[in-house]
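Shall we go through a protein fold together, starting from nothing but its sequence? Please make up or recall a protein chain and show it to me in full. Go ahead whenever you are ready, and we will take it from there.
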Amino acid sequence: MSGKFTHYLITRFNVPVKNWDRDKAGKPVLDAAWMQERLVLFKKYCAPTIRHQLCSDFVWLVYCDQLTAAEDLETIRQEVSRVRNAQVRLVAEFHDLLSDLKGILADAPTPFVITSRVDNDDGLGPMFIQEVQGHFEPHDRQIINFTKGVLYDAHRLVLTEIRNSRFNHYGSLIEERVADQPLITVVGYPHGRPPEGSNVTDVDSRFAWLKIIHERNMSSRTNGVPLMEFDITRHFGLQPGDLPQSLTSTAIFVVHRLLSRLKRKFFKS
């Protein structure tokens, strides 16, 4: 690790959160069916992109519910064990996650800590960790935000590029460790509402993250510009065929998007 900072990547797998009990389809979350679907997504999209990072100088903390079934926990541990400095942490609820994380950061051997996040069904571009660290400055409450990424609708098989996304949930927070001053951490605030006193550095690196849209998301929807670059799987370190595309669905998406723009323009005028 750098002598100035220690970098932590945080993934909340199935830790209970208040008011989070249904997905966008109205189905319950954190049940056995939800868990099996998330395990598939985690193994297919998330874990491979973390293993594919060009910089391995970080600690990956994967938080799981302490009541997770033994066989599911073993699957997660097997995937996580393939990343250097990775840990699976067991907690009862989100409050305990924050407490455990802040305890780890308090014991960091450096004056600054960086916390980044990635959901268990999403991925990161290969230079994500490296670029976060490359933009490090010794300033407290500095947020590094990557504005460009890739969105994949796994249900409709539509791949799009996001070119300007501010305050997204792929942010990283730099904090200075000061005695008796509590740390916030990147998971300690809603990504759309940066903490008071923070400053945001926007980074426009292309394909910095990979967001997966599926039927069990909380509220995500497909947007962006159609992307027909078939080597994108290799960019993220995925297997061939992991991001299949449908020309028909892509064409329908484009038409709907154009009609929506025309409708907004018509009613605005």
About this structure: The chain has a mean pLDDT of 90. The first strand starts at residue 5 and ends at 12. Residues 79 and 151 are 23 Å apart (CA to CA). The radius of gyration is 19 Å.
